[in-house]
Amino acid sequence: MNMDTLPFPVDELRSRDGARVLLSRHGAQVCSWRDAAGVERLYCSPLAQAGPGQAIRGGVPVIFPQFAGEGSLPKHGFARTQDWQLLASTVLADGSAQAHYRLSDSPATRAIWPQRFDAQLGIRFKGGELQLSLSIDNLGGTPFQFSCALHTYLRVQDLSGLRLSGLQHLAYRDSADGLRQRWQQEAELAIVGEVDRLYYATPRELILRDGATHLSLLQEGFNDSVVWNPGAGKAAALPDMPPDDWQKMLCVEAAQVGQPVQLAPGARWQGSQTLRVLR
Ligand SMILES: O=P(O)(O)OC[C@H]1O[C@H](O)[C@H](O)[C@@H](O)[C@@H]1O
User: Fold this and answer.
1) Can 253 be counted among the known catalytic residues?
2) From CA 102, how far away is CA 135, in angstroms rounded?
3) Is 108 helix (H, G, I), strand (E, B) or coil?
4) ipTM of this predicted complex?
5) Neighbours of 54 (CB within 10 A)
6) Mean pLDDT computed over 215-221
7) Structural domains of the chain, count
8) How far is the CA of 67 from the centre of ligand 1 (A)?
9) Which long-range CB contacts under 8 A does 170-173 form with residues at least 24 apart?
10) Average pLDDT score, the chain
11) pLDDT tens digits, residue range 167-211?
12) Is residue 3 pLDDT above 80, yes or no?
């Protein structure tokens, strides 16, 4: 897809070395990350829309305060369908570009989730590295509970050949197979059709090998990781993604789902995901 012609407004940010990110205020969503070598690293569907109540299919959706259908809220919560406020964007002394977005409770959020909160997303990038930092503050007088994720859609060259390492010996919930609890024996995960797994207590770093490209996925604060690809069957049912595009993407999500966060009044939770091109 030509990212310069996304069918909704975006903010464009460039680092001094020429890396470029496109961000939508709808969802505070990174829709495109072109590294300093000019290579697009994220997948965004050419059919993505950003209308009221709609989530943009691709980039990095922010999932908050509910993951998937694990509660009474709309699927994946409301952060990805709300318009966030751009607080600041700047180029720092080291040449990296940075932006901050905020979403606070509003009559619309309180109508379905009666909590006072402040969510902030920080984006920072240069060279072959992109970092996303999410913080949640409880501004109310009582504790609240939430789950969250950075639902990163990575652009993939050769889905059948790619390998994800760092998940061996981890327990996971197989959402593509009746939520069964399993255990990964293989050193590397290969994608053969639909995959929808919630891995618990993942290590700080996963490595994705896609042909000659090696990508490091670092996470802090998030305990879990989700690996998702709809495969041919489920992709065909997605109205906002071309039927064959499941072969161009893999979601590797930094997530906090197995144990939702209990946040005391006045307290802050923080988590981050960093994508780093190793080669
Ligand atoms: O289609 P969406 O609402 O964006 O959800 C896309 C996917 O998100 C996560 O990765 C879940 O684990 C999947 O079960 C879900 O299908």
Assistant:
1) yes
2) 10
3) helix
4) 0.98
5) 15
6) 98
7) 1
8) 9
9) 170/199, 170/200, 170/201, 170/202, 171/199, 171/200, 171/201, 172/197, 172/198, 172/199, 172/200, 173/197, 173/198, 173/200
10) 97
11) 999 999 999 999 999 999 999 999 999 999 999 999 999 999 999
12) no
Residue 63: give its domain's CATH number: 2.70.98.10
268-277 and 249-263 as β-strands: parallel, antiparallel, unpaired? unpaired
CA of 68 to the centre of ligand 1 (A): 6
Residue 27 pLDDT grade (very low, low, confident, very high; cuts 50, 70, 90): very high
pLDDT band at 4 (very low <50, low <70, confident <90, very high): low
The atom number, within ligand 1, closest to the CA of 251 reads 10
Indicate if 12 belongs to the active site: no
Residue to mutate (ligand 1; options 26, 29, 66, 76; most atoms within 8 A of CB): 76
Q: Which of 26, 151, 169, 214 is catalytic?
A: 151
CA-proximal residue: ligand 1, atom 14 (nearest): 196
The pTM of this model reads 0.97
Interval 215-234 mean pLDDT: 98
Q: How far apart are CA 10 and CA 19, in angstroms?
A: 16
- Identify the domain containing residue 142 by its residue range: 3-277
**Residue 108, amino acid:** A
For residue 78, the CA-to-ligand 1 centroid distance in Å is: 14
Measured in angstroms, how far is the CA atom of residue 175 from the centroid of ligand 1? 10
Taken in order 70, 71, 75, 79, is the CA torsion positive or negative?
Answer: negative
State if residue 75 touches ligand 1 by the CB under 6 angstroms criterion.
Answer: yes
Which two tokens mark 262?
């209990």
Tens digit of each residue's pLDDT (9 = 90 or more) over 56-82: 999 999 999 999 999 999 999 999 999
Q: What percent of the chain has pLDDT over 70?
A: 99
* 148 in Cβ contact with 255 (< 8 Å): yes
Best probe residue, ligand 1, of 81, 228, 251 (max atoms within 8 Å of C-beta): 228
